[in-house]
Amino acid sequence: MKDVILGLVGVGRIGVMHANNIAALNAVLNPEGINVRLRLTDVAADHARTVAAGLGAEFLPSVEALIASGIDGLVIATGTATHPELIKAGVDAGVPVFCEKPVAMNVADALPVLDYVRDRRGVVQIGHQRRFDAGYLEARRAYQEGELGWIHSLRAVTCDMAPPPVEFLASSGGLFRDCSVHDFDILRWLTGREIVEVYAKGSNNGDPAIGEVGDVDTALALVTFDDGTVGTVSATRYNGAGHDVRLEIQGSRRSLMVGLDDTTAMASAEAGVGFPAGEPHKTFAERFDQAYRSEMEAFVELILGRRENPCTPEDAVAASRVADAAQESLATGVPVRVAQKVAR
Questions:
Q1: Helices 13-23/289-303 angle, 10° precision
Q2: What are the sequence ranges of the domains in the chain?
Q3: What is the SS3 assignment for 340?
Q4: Which residue has the higher pLDDT, 341 or 290?
Q5: Rounded CA separation 133/136 (Å)
Q6: What share of the chain is helix, strand, coil (3-state, %, to 5)?
Q7: Residue 341 carries which DSSP code?
Q8: Judging by DSSP bridges, how do beta strands 124-127 and 97-100 pair with one another?
């Protein structure tokens, strides 16, 4: 049995989810002769000790102690502002790193991190979990194998049931950077094309405090790809029907929709239609539960050298470039070209 020791930094909402998923990996990997062990740390030490005790994991008092303990991979689930230095610490330790998106608060801050990782030949996987969702994977396969023909329209939707705390939104970078960046990433990944221009609009009809911290609660972006294809990316913090994430891909031969099942947070206005009949998801954690599990399994496989990196820092920064352009368009009211390079 081969031990793989993962060190987790940060046990807030998403960190606890990752901790649980790491603890559950042995059910999948033990039959393959792999035993995954978890060590974790957080500045909220008492909470971290409680999480560790509940999972049979080991608590370490600091990031430095965690790295020095001899981990095989570092998982970063802390606030965005801490990502650059923690990524560098993992790279300096010579271990593969998994970091929640984004690499940094903005593209300009991320570029030196890319250089740092590249110069030291580091291995860093960024957490864009939709790349592991069964629906998105099937849509990508169908497109790449020619079943859809050529794409004429794409419509991506991400709707949260309720907004996160205003304190979080004040430092999130804006709705496009915090939320729609997942859509920008998946559109690039699925089509294999670059988004070259964004035109964005937004509104605030919910909590006025969201506008007071410089954000919007609802936004729409018209995106143009490098081959002229157009698409829309919409997001809201106030979808009372439930958490709704979908992607509609319309091709010359066939159309597909990711996220269309009995849990879709939508009702038909047509007589006699009972679909969808299930209970909608309430949060992203439910909607992408299996994707998050598969993502962490992929990180272990990356550590073991069994697979290529499924989401590089360069991938993540490319999506962040689109999000930056969307935020700029939202602020200026005019279309913005997506920068391919950002001045240092």
A1: 60
A2: 2-129+292-310, 131-283+319-337
A3: coil
A4: 290
A5: 6
A6: 40, 20, 35
A7: S
A8: parallel
Whole-angstrom distance between the N-terminal and C-terminal Cα of the chain? 47
Give yes or no for residue 342 having a pLDDT over 70.
no
Distances (CA, A) of 155 to 62, 152, 242, 337: 44, 11, 19, 20
- Please enumerate in sequence order all residues whose Cβ is within 8 A of that of 90, keeping only pairs 6 or more positions apart, or say none: 67, 74, 76, 96, 97, 122, 124
Measure the CA–CA gap between 40 and 65, rounded to whole angstroms: 10
Name the 3-class secondary structure at 278. Answer: coil
Query: Which residues, 6 or more positions from 79, have their beta carbon under 8 angstroms from its beta carbon?
Result: 10, 171
- CATH architecture type of domain 131-283+319-337: 2-Layer Sandwich (3.30)
The H-or-E segment that residue 38 falls in is: strand 34-41
DSSP 211-268: HHTT--SEEEEEEEETTS-EEEEEEES--TT--EEEEEEEESS-EEEET-STT-S---
Contacts of 219 (CB under 8 A, 6+ apart): 175, 176, 180, 200, 201, 202, 203, 234, 235, 236, 326, 330
Please check whether the two domains, 2-129+292-310 and 131-283+319-337, share a CATH topology.
Answer: no
Greatest Cα pair distance, the chain, in angstroms, is: 64
pTM more than 0.85: yes
pLDDT at 344 exceeding the cut of 50: no
pLDDT tens, position by position, 174-210: 999 999 999 999 999 999 999 999 999 999 999 999 9
As a whole number of angstroms, the distance between CA 263 and CA 266 comes to 9
Task: Count Cβ atoms below 10 Å from residue 102 Cβ, excluding itself.
Answer: 26
* Residue 274 confidence (pLDDT) above 70: yes
Fold of the CATH domain 2-129+292-310? Rossmann fold (3.40.50)
CB 246 within 8 A of CB 260: yes
* pLDDT attached to residue 341: 61
